[in-house]
Amino acid sequence: MGWQGERLSRAWVPAPRWWMSPWSATLLAVSLLLPPAAGLSVTQEPANLTEGGNVTLTPQGIPDSFIMNCGWFRGETTDRANRIFIYYPPPSPRGQINGAANTGRERRVPTCSLRISDLMLNYSGVYTVVVTLASAAPAKASVKIAVSEHFISTDHAAVIGLALGILAAAALIGGLLYYFLRVRGRSDPSSTQAVSAYSIYENISPSGQVKAEGSLDSNHTTYQALQHGDRAVYDRLKW
Question: For residue 10, what pLDDT is reported?
Answer without folding.
Answer: 45
